[in-house]
Write a structure and sequence with these properties.
Blueprint (H helix, E strand, L loop, with lengths): L8 H16 L3 E2 L9 H13 L2 E6 L1 H6 L7 H14 L4 H4 L7 H16 L7 H8 L5 E5 L5 H4 L7 E3 L2 E8 L7 E3 L1 H11 L2 E2 L5 E2 L25 E5 L9 H16 L5 E6 L10 H10 L4 E5 L6 E2 L6 E4 L3 H11 L1
Parallel strand pairs: 2-3, 2-10, 3-4, 10-11, 11-13
Antiparallel strand pairs: 1-12, 5-6, 5-9, 7-8
Length: about 325
């Protein structure tokens, strides 16, 4: 059997990002980037998308936040009120690192976490509106998000690269096993075991009496279907993260796409990328725009819209809610 050779688009672009840090570090331009949506910048972005030969989309957590996938506040209190009361956990993200007393409690937490951040639709149609804005365009998406919202919104799977994993996948705790496993069936059983009930739309909801179990039966603790070992989430945290065949295929497609569009009228559209993983999207985008005089960089981010001075004249920075910007762009069409 012929061995498949993959190009590692993930690490190739990280190298681009490192080059950007070395060449552009300390030369940021924050001038003219005020609060609120600037009409002229939104119009300019709409025109750039319309005329671009290709659009490379880089998405971070801010995009899902704009879509209503918040990890604290009302949404957290609605589904994790009992964990908050008993353990003092105040938001979902930090709760994922909490030292729960046993595996039954730990996996009860994770079943809820996975279900409400992976298997339900986002409260707002931000991803659907982004797809409408990109309608008819040659695009590719690289994202650090792990919530599957691009595919749920109808984006072409072959044009997506999830770099950091997927809430919908388990991997074996055995480092020699380099496969991933779908977890939807297990999640549904674990939600039922805790007392969640389906509403008229088939979505799990808190029962009227708000009585929920905070532990799942021991026999429901998930195990690897191949070898019976423990499983963990397929989320990048260290070198144990499994880059399976699907991940490698997507990384290769991203690499090929970037190679095909090194030159020409390319728009690098960054959406909601913060300071946690800038070397995967933000920094490489800067470097690729710097290397291509016909390219444009666009950054939509609430409170963090900026760019290097060297590419300021070919950049669009909008400090505002991504969903609002997309709605305004659609209203103009």
């Amino acid at each position: 059997m012929k061995k498949i050779i993959y190009h590692d688009g993930y690490r190739e672009t990280i190298q681009e990002g490192i080059m950007a840090v070395r060449g552009l570090g300390g030369q940021m331009d924050f001038e003219g980037v005020g609060k609120g949506i600037k009409e002229e910048e939104a119009e300019r972005l709409a025109e750039k998308i319309r005329t671009a030969d290709a659009v490379v989309v880089g998405a971070g957590a801010g995009l899902s936040t704009s879509a209503g996938f918040t990890y604290s506040g009302e949404r957290f209190e609605k589904y994790f009120f009992d964990f908050e009361k008993k353990f003092g956990i105040t938001e979902m993200y930090s709760g994922g690192f909490y030292p729960f007393p046993d595996k039954e409690t730990q996996w009860a937490w994770w079943a809820r976490y996975i279900y409400f951040n992976r298997y339900v639709d986002a409260p707002k149609p931000v991803y659907q509106n982004l797809l409408k804005v990109l309608s008819g365009k040659d695009y590719f998406v690289i994202t650090t998000n792990v919530d599957h919202m691009f595919q749920k919104a109808g984006f072409d799977k072959s044009r997506l690269f999830y770099t950091q994993g997927d809430y919908g996948l388990f991997q074996s705790a055995d480092p020699s096993n380099r496969k991933t496993y779908d977890n939807e069936e297990w999640v549904e059983k674990a939600m039922e075991a805790q007392g969640f009930v389906r509403d008229a739309d088939g979505i799990f909801s808190v029962p009227e009496d708000r009585k929920l179990a905070m532990r799942i039966p021991t026999e429901l603790i998930p195990k690897c279907p191949d070898d019976g070992s423990d499983v963990v989430m397929n989320l990048r945290s260290d070198d144990s993260f499994v880059e399976d065949e699907g991940w490698k295929d997507a990384s290769d497609r991203y690499y090929q796409y970037l190679q095909e569009h090194k030159k020409g009228n390319v728009l690098y559209l960054e959406l909601g990328v913060g300071a946690n993983t800038p070397v995967i999207v933000k920094y490489p985008f800067w470097q690729m725009v710097l290397s291509n005089r016909d390219a444009t960089y666009a950054c939509l981010n609430y409170g963090e819209a900026f760019c290097p001075k060297k590419i300021r004249m070919r950049s669009i920075c909008i400090d505002g809610d991504i969903g609002e910007v997309l709605e305004r762009m659609l209203d103009r069409n």
